[in-house]
């Protein structure tokens, strides 16, 4: 009995120890982004146009994370963006790469082509679950296309030159992974708050978590199952990333794994914070609008 109590206390202590940094990141995100997000989500009061502007800004955050930190500097492979980067490397120099130059939005960027294609396929799976929610599908598809457009736009205005200005020391790679994951999470959270999705692992995890919940008979919370599934999916993608990029000059497997782990780790708390702030702001605007219409 005493041993069971000790094990229980140890497990609770470890749980608090592991969740404390996540809670700290959530609080820091809320403190840093509450005011700008309040201004941003106030645009949603413009209905369709405002929501499109919000999704565009979220897409730009995602494109910046990929082009500045995850793709260009680290070749970090997480989520659909990671799969796209791996696929682009495997098809480099192929006929497909040459044909992409004829498609205006991609301008020879295989990674962007694969990002839009794989995200759309993932969204198609998610649409089966949300088949009665046409707004979700439209918002998500708009986000996917706008991310592709934003990636191409950043390349057009010379984001590559900005990347060359970043210090390239190997020990900085984990910091770039953390920054890339945070920027990605802000973009994902913004799009999620207005009712869309980037059709990444989060969408797949939500589908799998429902089945897992039935398998485990409610022994684990939905959040725990979702996070565990995200780590498994991203871990497999990262492993393929190591196998794909290990022959590149200057590739550091250990630093790559650390960078990828930090990027995956920071995504969940930042997405939760941004999504929570956004939905609370939108709900308050909705209530204010309803009260105004009742008075009128």
Explain how this protein is built.
The longest helix has 43 residues, at 253-295. The protein is an all-alpha fold and 296 residues long. The protein has one domain (49-286). It has helices at 2-41, 48-74, 79-90, 95-100, 110-129, 134-156, 159-165, 173-193, 201-215, 222-245, 253-295.
DSSP E strands, number? 0
SS-based class: mainly alpha
Which percent band covers the strand fraction? Answer: under 5%
Main sheet makeup = none
**SSE series:** HHHHHHHHHHH
Indicate how many domains the architecture comprises.
1
Any idea what the radius of gyration is?
A: 20 Å
Q: End-to-end distance, in Å? A: 66 Å
Any idea what the shape is? globular
Write down the overall mean pLDDT: 76
Count of discrete alpha- or pi-helical segments spanning 4 or more residues: 11
Quaternary state of the chains = single chain
The share of residues in helices is over 70%
Q: Which parts are unreliable, with pLDDT below 50 for 5 consecutive residues or more? A: none
Offer a few descriptive terms.
296 residues; 80% helix; globular
In short:
The chain is mainly α and about 300 residues long. It has eleven helices and no strands.
Compile the SSE list and pairings.
Blueprint: H1 2-41, H2 48-74, H3 79-90, H4 95-100, H5 110-129, H6 134-156, H7 159-165, H8 173-193, H9 201-215, H10 222-245, H11 253-295
